[in-house]
């Protein structure tokens, strides 16, 4: 059904879980393609790439190389969100690769003053993608087993 799957990741547990779902959707025997996107933010018109971003990109690069070695058509895109935020950059990549679906975690990671904040219910990026991407968006929540009662 979905031959070209795009998954957006930010290093959060929810994004990692969404990546696993996206990977399971891709069938190498059928020639499906997986595009992995990590968006860097910008400040004052310049890319803001943190040490965490660099670490994540290195890990993603290794994962992409492993999938390519397994015969899965995979690519990694690392755009910078200059205007419109990460959702806009993700939607642009989806347009460029003609993705059939965008897979994204329900909530991600935001940093504010050194603190890591998870979005309360549904993150800003999934909501903006649902409104503006112009293609199916699969929003993946964390499984209930991951939450403490």
TrEMBL record:
Question: Where's the UspA domain?
Answer: 1-141
Pfam families, per database record: Usp (PF00582)
Q: Which domain of life is it from?
A: Bacteria
Q: List the InterPro entries.
A: Rossmann-like_a/b/a_fold, Universal_stress_UspA, UspA
Give TM regions: none
Q: Which family is this sequence assigned to?
A: Belongs to the universal stress protein A family.
* Name the record gives this protein: UspA domain-containing protein
Q: Which organism is it from?
A: Kineosporia mesophila
């Amino acid at each position: 059904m979905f031959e070209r799957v795009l998954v957006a990741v930010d290093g959060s547990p929810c994004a990692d879980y969404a990546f696993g779902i996206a990977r399971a959707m891709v069938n190498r025997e059928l020639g499906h393609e997986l595009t992995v996107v990590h968006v860097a933010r910008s400040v004052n018109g310049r890319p803001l790439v943190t040490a965490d971003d660099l670490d994540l990109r290195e890990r993603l690069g290794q994962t992409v190389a492993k999938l390519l070695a397994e015969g899965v058509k995979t690519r990694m895109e690392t755009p910078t969100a200059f205007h419109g935020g990460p959702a806009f950059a993700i939607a642009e990549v989806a347009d460029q690769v003609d993705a059939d679906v965008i897979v994204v975690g329900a909530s991600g990671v935001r940093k504010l003053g050194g603190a890591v904040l998870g979005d309360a219910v549904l993150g800003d990026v999934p909501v903006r993608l649902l409104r503006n991407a112009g293609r199916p968006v699969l929003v993946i929540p964390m499984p209930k087993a991951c939450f403490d009662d």
